[in-house]
Fold this protein.
Amino acid sequence: MRNIALLLAYDGTDFIGSQWQNQGRSVQGALEEAWEALTQEQKRITLSGRTDAGVHAYGQVASIRSTTRHPPLTIVRGLNARLPEDLRVQDACEVTPDFHARHSAIRRDYRYLIDANMVPLPALRHMVLHVEGRLDLAHMAEALQILEGTHDFAAFTVQSPDQKRTVRTMHCAKLTEIELLGGRLIALDVAANAFLQHMVRVIVGTVLLVGRGRMTVSAFQQVLEGGERKAAGPTAAAHGLTLMAVHYPPGLVRWESRQA
Amino acid sequence: MRNIALLLAYDGTDFIGSQWQNQGRSVQGALEEAWEALTQEQKRITLSGRTDAGVHAYGQVASIRSTTRHPPLTIVRGLNARLPEDLRVQDACEVTPDFHARHSAIRRDYRYLIDANMVPLPALRHMVLHVEGRLDLAHMAEALQILEGTHDFAAFTVQSPDQKRTVRTMHCAKLTEIELLGGRLIALDVAANAFLQHMVRVIVGTVLLVGRGRMTVSAFQQVLEGGERKAAGPTAAAHGLTLMAVHYPPGLVRWESRQA
């Protein structure tokens, strides 16, 4: 039995999320259907992590155990020929039997895009959160930086008895202004060993309170330290979020054909 | 009678183009309907220039003569409340009676976005042209630079007996690599006093031949000098193109509320 890793990109707009559900169009479901059409195998595909409805991915990773003999490039082309245009396989490679898309991952990178123009940019409306009013970007960047390091992120996730271990290590949390189609786009980039449910979106919702002057940077720090979900801001909309990359220990995944 | 200028942004994907046609959903038609709903006036709206089906705009300009007493901000909000979400009014201002969105314009800026990743980025598929294979960006930038200055652009437009004056002044033609959602995005920016029909798209189609090594930079220069449409490359797809800005003589249009 081979173990195959897939690198995926998708537009989350018309998916109910990454994970298979009883009803609706999921990334996992679409991928498993295309896999069966290509290989005649009915297989369960494992993703590096769940993305909510509306959340996009540029560098999602999946793994699948299979007896197919197709080489990686044939798998990429064969799946893309059978997948809808809002879900693409960017690369495939064979991995060792112990590789698991979720358990082996050591770091995830997310980007949240904000459109701070007075009127939203129509061409970007499905991938960027439009916010009204002025934002203090310097304070937002300061608040983000507080998150770097190892902390208990209980305040920034769904309060649930299931979430017992809420300590995560944030490798990087920064703000960048980018220019794509004019106007002001703000990218919030966060990278951590792993993320709790809704964690990026609650961080963004809380950082936006700081940006609007409704929460000071030191109050933001107290939210982190206090660990109370209700002290944090609202969960920011899903459609601004993109899973950018998933990292594995060196040598575990060697993508074949992806351009540098 | 007041003369009012409107600053528009739209996602061109679901429009048949900017200009009203007998059938289909045009930017002009949607705007005229919203104008009538807001003011009860049936008016003809003038755009700075035509954009084809699928072409987007970030800074399109329209003008309209009206007896409405609404202040500019009320017009912006009132129209946006009545317009579909893929067409937004970013700003409005009163202009002098001699202002005409098309005739008064002295410069147009366009951006063409290219996705040079092996597999297209799904979230960007409606606004970026995906091209396969490697591109020589340095040669593409060199070819673009040849276009700067005043030239006869007959080779880069639709061959038609109607197009008699084909000399235009290209203020700027450059290539930039930008980073939005990972991967390689290439922006081709061109700015000229005015553009001929399909001019940006034929330029892009020809510059892509240079990028792929199928035309040398000196052959590109000969295409410009020869003035023969058939020597140039194919017309690049509409959906990669965005009208970024329209410029007027200083003082003619003073947008009120647009963020810097």
Residues 2-104 of chain A form a domain with the Alpha-Beta Plaits fold (CATH 3.30.70.580). Chain A has a mean pLDDT of 93. DSSP finds five helices and ten strands in chain A. Chain A touches chain B through 42 residues (CB under 8 Å).
